[in-house]
Amino acid sequence: MKFILPFLVLLIIICVVSGAEDNTSVENITLEDLINENDYVLSHDSQNLTALQFRALIFFNEKQYPEAIKAAEQCLVVDKTCSFAWHIIGSSWGFLNQPEKAVEAFQNVVSLNPDDPVQFNVQGVALSRTEKFNEAIQAFQKATALNPSYAAAWNNMGVTFYGMKEYDKALSAFDKAISFKPDEPEFYSNKGYVLLQKGDYYGALSSAKTARNMDLTCVPAWFVSGEAQFHNHNWKDAFFSFDGGFNALAKNELWYYQGAKNTQITKDMQPMDAYYVAIASNVKFTGMWERTTIINYKIKRYQDTIDVYDQILAITPDYAEGWKKKGYCAIKTERMESARDAYKRAMEFYPNDPEVLSSYGYATGMLGDYLDAMKNIDKAIEVEPGYSRSYLFKGLINSFYGQRDDAIAALQKGLEFGGDKSEMFDALSNVQFKNGDVIGGSISSFRSILGF
């Protein structure tokens, strides 16, 4: 699956108390106004630690993280033990996706605040992002030892255990988080991901339902539900769950790690655009959209499936598996030119794949090239003599060109190797009827319904 657990976001809550003169609206104060006022204070006392801290906070709140770091470093020139400055530096490096530097900063924070569970939780998040999982767990354990009811730390511990594939420990941590904060939908969706890994699909559905009842825009809960329904072969329910997740996703601002770790969906980037950037960066994590193509096929939405692959392949032309899947769906919709072209591209990556060879041969044969069709189908049989679909395609092509005896022989041979016998018997019955074998055709037709 690229299912995905929601990645940890550093939550820095800093309360600033400020006053305003009469007839002055806070909304009218600009960044430039704040900086000018701060400059004025510092012009009278360049070592004013409070003013320097406020300057760092201004830039941090404006998401100008490099400037926030510079301002925080000025605080440290005045006072090396300024915990606030180290916190700003660590959080800024976190948002700049420099987790190693964030870890260094937060180490200083916890050293200066050995009794503050919040600092250990934040340190754990930074360590987890650098995949220093054991150290991260130790930090979360310190946080929960200092504050046993610290739900966020229990949740983050669960996410880290999940990354370590310690699913029982992850489940225990999420249950702890839920026991202390039962109204947080994220905790339930995270628990759902663990239950998926343990094969408890009904439990995962229950957790996802609880999360969605709290917040219908909880994206991970929709995806947990979709995965569970997918594994239970409830194709339509799975499709609508994934669809619900994408609809909810469009209404949220969040970090969405679908393929690339740094694709941020904001007001300035549509979810679809962000998704395509993600898979362009890391094709193997086509994730939930890949699932929807499978489900589309299962519920016979063939054209929808092809449309999605057309978009994926437009930006990831080296996605070999995508060409195979597109070709397969194109055959099902009888779009033979599209199937031929897709399998031709797939052959560049899979020159000895019996599925690719025989499917390409079938598509070219249906487009009028009998010799090329037989050459590729026979090659597929040579590569893997037991691949029944090669015989199906050989039978269908022979039948198409009026070679009925050869078609019957190929189909009967294919039946010896299993595969989709319903499809094989259906093809065989059609040839037998055309060949005047009414009894044989009727028997094969009946067996196509039974599937054996």
Q: How would you sum up this structure, described in words?
A:
With 452 residues, this protein is mostly helical. It has a domain at 373-452: Tetratricopeptide repeat domain (Serine Threonine Protein Phosphatase 5, Tetratricopeptide repeat). It contains 24 helices and two strands. It has a two-stranded antiparallel ribbon with strand order 1-2. Strand 1 and strand 2 form a beta hairpin. Mean pLDDT is 78; it is low at 1-26 and 251-288.
Furnish the topology, listing elements before pairings:
Elements: H1 31-44, H2 49-61, H3 65-78, H4 83-95, H5 99-112, H6 117-129, H7 133-146, H8 151-163, H9 167-180, H10 185-197, H11 201-214, H12 219-231, H13 235-249, E1 254-255, E2 264-265, H14 271-281, H15 287-298, H16 302-315, H17 320-332, H18 336-349, H19 354-366, H20 370-383, H21 388-400, H22 404-415, H23 421-434, H24 438-450
Antiparallel strand pairs: 1-2
Proportion in β-strands: under 5%
What do we call the CATH homologous superfamily of the domain at 373-452? Answer: Tetratricopeptide repeat domain
Identify the overall geometry: elongated
Write down the Rg.
30 Å
The CATH topology assignment of the domain at 373-452 is Serine Threonine Protein Phosphatase 5, Tetratricopeptide repeat
Please give the share of residues in helix: over 70%
End-to-end gap: 32 Å
**Secondary-structure element sequence?**
HHHHHHHHHHHHHEEHHHHHHHHHHH
Which strand order do you get reading across the main beta sheet?
A: 1-2
Largest sheet, strands/sense/barrel: 2 strands, antiparallel
**CATH architecture term of the domain at 373-452:** Alpha Horseshoe
Text of the CATH class of the domain at 373-452: Mainly Alpha
What's the rounded overall pLDDT mean? 78
